[in-house]
Design a protein that fits this description.
The chain is α/β, with parallel strands linked by helices. It contains 17 helices and 14 strands. Helix 7 packs across helix 8, helix 11 runs parallel beside helix 13 and helix 12 crosses helix 13.
Length: 506
């Protein structure tokens, strides 16, 4: 296997690890610093000689509190010069291999393509695929909508982070053959904000033709601002920096740490009032001419196969760290819902979820809230995405629910948000991850089934395989859903009554 690869920008010296080749810290765009801080990404500059591709490039600037607590989520160094990607390949020669491009999650404010939980070696080895993990700008640096403030004095775009992802996909199209990949067999996949990015890219005109398949894990088209919402966030950031609307050009000169501190204050101010997130893509009329779900529903997204799903208990991870949740009774749960979702019948919804035993064996008020929020924030948007895509000519849609319960902390987190990640990447052996999620033969068997489903989808657009029951396409009215857990099975339209309850609300 050749550890030296030559692409348009120059030669790269990678390393061989565990029987695969790894190339790290590859720039796919110029450093977005100074006058480029809020601009669309620009093509990277060539380099002379061989570039060392054995170390990760810096991650996007962010608060690192969460990743500091869990070493297996570590992001390494940070810098505004962050537009790097990492390639793992079984070999640079031989027949072209399918390519899987990972878009990390983290609420559009944290995360990195270098995090150990996303190590691509096991997927590359097991499936004979090329795995690419990308960075993109986060927070205000990636998703600040300045149209109402910048005018002609600041060259900015509303969706720099989204455009970074598109730039990385263009890099893949132009260069991945040198790593043994097939540019015509690209699958994008991501979780949480990464899943939301995948779904948004499906409805982004500039991304059309850059990928053939898409996997959206715990994220759909629910995280988008209209122009008014994006302007409100930008206004709040300017206020935190003691800048007026006409001072927007000065944002290019604000020291990075001052900008990040102001961003944290904006998050604290606005997140509680936001439906989901504060910094996220904006339907700006340019990069996103309209809501991507409308594009997806009208077949304008092109012939792209889709695999989409959620975990069973998404919200338990978020809810259990909220100290106010423990004191809630049913009336308190209903009142909280009515504040978050105008027009919803809070008491009626609580009663329905209790009647349907949607919280499983835990029927205390906090668990009812977690079940409702799981559906509101994650499951219903995923269903809407699948419904918009189902039945399109030349494309197939599949739906799943991940039911494995995390074993740490006495099982308190259940099948929570992000629990599927080490099963998708085969990284259960990471110490902190294995301790939290669970290890042993049963977990390993589910990891193998999950990896083979994702790999089969990347190869053929078909996630079913011999170790799983037959996995039908998601079509109306059946709504076949694969339940991935200790026992894997297909269920038609799970939680149908709850799905119908949201029909006129979300």
């Amino acid at each position: 296997m050749d550890r030296v690869v030559e692409i348009e920008s120059g030669k790269l010296l990678g390393s061989e690890r565990d029987g695969v080749l790894v190339f790290r810290g590859i720039p796919f765009a110029r450093p977005p610093r100074g006058p480029r801080r809020f601009r669309a990404p620009e093509a990277p500059e060539p380099w002379p000689g061989e570039r060392d591709a054995t170390r990760f490039g810096p991650s996007a600037p962010q608060a690192s509190v969460v990743t500091a607590i869990f070493p297996d989520l570590g992001i390494g160094t940070q810098d505004e010069d962050c537009l790097f990607l990492n390639v793992t390949t079984p070999d640079t020669g031989g027949p072209p291999r399918p390519v899987m491009v990972w878009i990390h999650g983290g609420a559009f404010v944290i995360g990195s393509g270098a995090q150990p939980i996303y190590d691509g070696r096991e997927l590359a080895r097991r499936g004979n695929v090329v795995v690419v993990r990308i960075n993109y700008r986060l927070g205000a640096l990636g998703y600040l909508h300045l149209d109402a403030f910048g005018g002609d004095e600041v060259e900015a775009c509303s969706n720099a982070g989204l455009l970074d992802q598109i730039a990385a996909l263009r890099w893949v199209r132009e260069n991945i053959a040198a790593f043994g990949g097939d540019p015509d067999q690209v699958t994008i996949f991501g979780e949480s904000a990464g899943g939301m990015s995948v779904a948004t890219l499906l409805g982004t005109p500039e991304a059309r033709g850059l990928f053939r398949r898409a996997i959206a894990q715990s994220g759909a088209c629910q995280a988008l601002h209209d122009r008014e919402g994006g302007t409100r966030v930008a206004h709040a950031l300017l206020e935190e920096l003691d800048l007026g609307p006409r001072d927007a050009p000065r944002l290019q000169e604000v020291p990075l740490q001052v900008l990040l501190a102001a961003q944290s204050r904006v998050l604290a101010r606005l997140t509680a009032r936001a439906k989901i997130l504060t910094f996220q893509p904006t339907v700006d009329g340019r990069t996103l001419p309209r809501h991507p779900l409308a594009t997806i529903a009208e077949s304008d997204a092109g012939p792209v196969d889709l695999l989409v799903g959620t975990t069973r208990d998404e919200w338990r991870m978020f809810g259990l760290i909220d100290p106010k949740v423990r004191a809630l009774d049913d009336a308190g749960v209903a009142a909280r819902l009515e504040r978050r979702v105008p027009g919803v019948d809070g008491p009626g919804l609580v009663a329905l979820y209790r009647e349907q035993h949607a919280a499983g064996p835990r029927e205390d008020p906090p668990s009812i809230l977690f079940a409702i929020e799981t559906d509101r924030v994650f499951r219903i948007p995923a269903i809407r995405l699948a419904e918009a895509r189902a039945g399109h000519p030349g494309s197939r849609t599949f739906f799943y629910r991940f039911d494995w319960e995390a074993r740490g902390l006495g099982g308190a987190f259940g099948a929570c948000h992000a629990v599927e990640l080490p099963f998708v990447f085969g990284t259960l052996s990471l110490p902190a991850i294995g301790a939290m999620v669970g290890a042993g033969p049963e977990a390993q068997r589910l990891a193998e089934r999950t990896m083979d489903a994702w790999l089969g989808f990347a190869r053929e657009g078909e996630p079913g395989h011999e170790s799983l029951p037959s996995w039908p396409c998601y079509e109306l009215p059946r709504r076949a859903t694969m339940l991935l857990g200790p026992e894997c099975r297909v269920e038609d339209d799970p939680g149908a009554a709850l799905r119908r309850a949201w029909a006129d609300v979300l």
